[in-house]
Write a structure and sequence with these properties.
Blueprint (H helix, E strand, L loop, with lengths): L1 H31 L8 E7 L7 E2 L2 E5 L4 E6 L5 E5 L4 E6 L4 E6 L5 E6 L12 E7 L13 H4 L21 H5 L7 H4 L1 H4 L7 H6 L8 H13 L4 H14 L1 H4 L33 H4 L4 H10 L15 H12 L6
Parallel strand pairs: 1-4, 3-9
Antiparallel strand pairs: 1-2, 4-7, 5-6, 8-9
Helix pairs in contact: 8-12, 11-12
The structure holds heme C (HEC) and copper (II) ion.
């Protein structure tokens, strides 16, 4: 009799576990998929430092045209949230407070999101994606391949170090006042992006510029590389730089930011390669690189080296503006 009871009890435990776990999971899912009284779907999102899991969930599936209320909270430190494709920017998610925002994505697609505060040394890993599904009204227009791909640039080939380097800091405003017409390939931004500022040499060799000093020709180069970007756009890039890059590359662009040391993957790199984030004031490297090459680096990131990719967070205009901003570490405006 006693044995029988024990068996019954064991059976009861097994049944409870078998039924209980799915029930608990279902309740958990339901809680996550709650709806507010007005019928709007509510998604609870927790932002934790990446070592503790980052965003959860870090992948969301929404219906196109559906309004969803995101309730974001943080159990640890201050985080931020940007969803560039949906125009969402939350500067601060304070621990213990809930930030509520509503999103209503219209177009199907993948929308990356990211934390915007240096919440930990691994902050730059704190990203996620929102997938918006639904019948697309019209077939999505196929985007042209990024310029660096159209040009067939191999991102892993280091361009040769230029032979001529400026002695003083080239100044775009001084270049603008020289009244020298740029060759068409440099005047037009689209073709200029395929050329490296080491093109100084070609300008120097041009008999038309014989009367110019070397410093003048460098000023002309600085102007050619900065003339296409509006001051407001450049200012936007500057603020993105302090938000997204300065911690590794340093506020002064010299590659000595606190988060740039001991990045994972750096040690495994070729020992002859520089180990840290790029120094944007290094003329030998920066003058050898075309804007298109830098675009490729920003779109791809540094693979195992810790340099994140920014293609999913920046618009095209922001990418080119960021590249112009990187030029200002070497060229004065
Ligand atoms: C987590 C640290 C980190 C952050 C954040 C970061 N970088 Fe980097 N970056 C690196 C490292 C490390 C390298 C060197 C690795 C390499 O060359 O691939 C690098 C290299 C680069 C290079 C040159 C790549 C090459 O090989 O020539 C460019 C350009 C660059 N970063 C731009 C940026 C910009 C712009 C931002 C911000 C939008 C940024 N980085 C944010 C770490 C970082
Ligand atoms: Cu963060």
């Amino acid at each position: 009799m006693l044995v029988k009871r024990r068996e019954l009890f064991a059976l009861f435990v097994v049944v409870a576990v078998v039924l209980g776990i799915p029930a608990a999971l279902f309740a958990y899912q339901a809680a996550r998929q709650q709806r507010s009284p007005d019928g709007v779907r509510v998604v609870e999102m927790v932002a934790r430092a990446p070592e503790q899991g980052g965003f959860s969930p870090d992948r969301l599936v929404l219906q196109a045209g559906e309004t969803v209320r995101l309730r974001i909270s943080s159990p640890d430190v201050v985080h931020g949230l940007t969803i560039p494709g949906l125009g969402v920017n939350v500067d601060e998610i304070y621990p213990g407070k809930v930030v509520e925002i509503a999103v209503r994505p219209d177009k199907p697609g993948r929308y990356a999101f990211a934390c915007t505060r240096w919440c930990s040394v691994n902050h730059w890993r704190m990203r996620g994606v929102i997938e918006v599904v639904g019948a697309a009204a019209a077939p999505a227009p196929t985007e042209p391949a990024p310029l660096f791909q159209q040009l067939g640039i191999d991102l892993d080939v280091m361009p040769p170090t230029p032979t001529a380097l400026p002695v003083t800091r080239p100044m775009a405003s001084a270049g603008a006042t020289l009244g020298v017409a740029l060759p068409p390939a440099l005047a037009d931004p689209a073709s200029r992006r395929a050329i490296a500022p080491a093109a100084f040499q070609a300008l120097r060799n041009d008999p038309a510029n014989a009367a110019l000093s070397d410093a003048d020709v460098w000023n002309l180069v600085a102007w050619a590389w900065l003339k296409d970007v509006e001051p407001a756009t450049l200012a936007r890039a500057e603020s993105l730089y302090s938000r997204d890059c300065a911690a590794c590359h340093g506020p002064d662009g010299k590659g000595k930011g606190p988060a740039g040391v001991n990045l994972p993957g750096m040690v495994k790199m070729d020992p002859t390669m520089p180990r840290g984030p790029l120094d944007f004031t290094d003329a030998g490297v920066m003058l050898a690189a075309s804007d298109a090459l830098l675009q490729g680096k920003l779109l791809r990131g540094g693979m195992g080296t810790g340099m994140p990719e920014f293609g999913s967070l920046y618009s095209d205009e922001e990418l080119w503006a960021m590249i112009a901003h990187l030029r200002t570490f070497l060229f004065a405006k």
